[in-house]
Amino acid sequence: MSEPINEIGPREQGPLSTFRERLEGAAERAHRGCGLSDMLYVERICAEVAGMLEHVPVELREAAREIAYEFGYYDGEEEPYHEPGTCFLTGIDEHCCPCGRHP
Ligand SMILES: [Zn+2]
After folding, report:
1. Is residue 7's pLDDT more than 60?
2. Which residues pair with 93 in a beta bridge?
3. Distance (Å) from CA 81 to ligand 1 centroid
């Protein structure tokens, strides 16, 4: 057993410090399994994080997500905005849109 000499930066204290430690473990596992594929990494880290977030108290989830983003987590909530009544694919008014998804 040796003492860590060079701690890099201050670590979060409190309930989320464990979350970060587990994330580091998850990130390491995800990297190991996927070689150089970023897509696969993101897929794996998302699956791990989704499971981990369920155990995080609701009031801490937002902060926990912020940490997870540092590790490449992506929650898919940043869908492009579209006006109601317009197509989510093209942004064109549904009555004029040529994409064929509108009755
Ligand atoms: Zn459309």
Report:
1. no
2. 86
3. 14
The confidence score (pLDDT) of residue 80 equals: 53
Centre of ligand 1 to C-alpha 46, Å, is 29
Query: Span 39-68, mean pLDDT?
Result: 91
Expressed in angstroms and rounded, the spacing between residue 100 Cα and the centre of ligand 1 is 6
The C-alpha atoms of residue 16 and residue 52 are separated, in whole angstroms, by: 11
- Asked whether residue 68 carries a pLDDT value surpassing 90, the answer given is yes
State which residues have CB under 5 angstroms from ligand 1, the bound ion: 87, 90, 97, 99, 101
- CA distance to 13, 95, 100, per residue, from 89 (Å): 43, 14, 11
- 8-32 pLDDT, tens per residue? 445 556 778 999 999 999 999 888 8
Q: At what angle do helices 15-34 and 38-53 cross, to 10 degrees?
A: 150
